[in-house]
Amino acid sequence: MDTIDNLVDRYINYLLVEKGLSATTIDAYSADLSRYTAYLTASGAGGVSDNDTQLLLRYLIDMRDEGLTPRSRARHLVSIRGFYRFLVQEKILPADPAALIDLPKSGLRLPDVLSVEEVKRLLDAPDMTRPAGFRDAAMLEMLYAAGLRVSELIRLKLLDVNLEAGFVRVFGKGARERVVPIGKHARDKLEEYLASFRPQLLKQSSSAYLFVARAGKPMTRQGFWKLLKKYALQADILKTVSPHSLRHSFASHLLEGGADLRTVQIMLGHVDIATTQIYTHVARDQLKKMHRRYHPRG
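Predicted structure:
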């Protein structure tokens, strides 16, 4: 019989090899499971069991009493749930003891989602008469058009963009590749950027990257974050705006417009559709508003 540590090692290897998760995500899962298995051992458990539900509930209560936020407790539970699902999948356990335990309330709170009008104001904020300003406008447009993570945006290369076909090739977490369509607004902005403004930014240098900063180098995450904060202020947006805000807005606006969850999952590059389901609360809010507005007894 494998020890708890051996089972965790098998699961982490599964996440690394089979799922292709990033090193950062692997480290987070490892830390969460190390803490949980230490708790199991301290509680006198000889190993994992399909009867661990009460132990897991006590663990979550203890974390709450220690002052961990709902968000932190939810992240721990997500890690533990995945571990138990793996054990059932591998037929090590006959049933999942974590299956019926709900996430702590507010544990998966999304950042503010921008309205369509707020997105428009943000995208129009850069000074597009200047090469750097037009580049910034093209980056914002691409972030929203394809629902990219900021790390994916700054790593885009010229070869990753097919303007004629209207799609961009993205390498996401764990180096997983996906292809995401982009609309007319983003295509037009990119065409003008590539034809007129990118050469001015490069001057005499060259670069494989789509969006360039000084000396042809790609922009840093911190550099883009500062630009985004500046443009959010210029656009008079009172919500807290981060690079992920446009990704969240992309997903929420698609769902509000009638896109199905599976399609949005593919475009976001989520391995598990459960991750995408956190956006559905926004769509549900919109549906409630529409029902109240148009239903005769709403």
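Summary: The chain has a mean pLDDT of 84.
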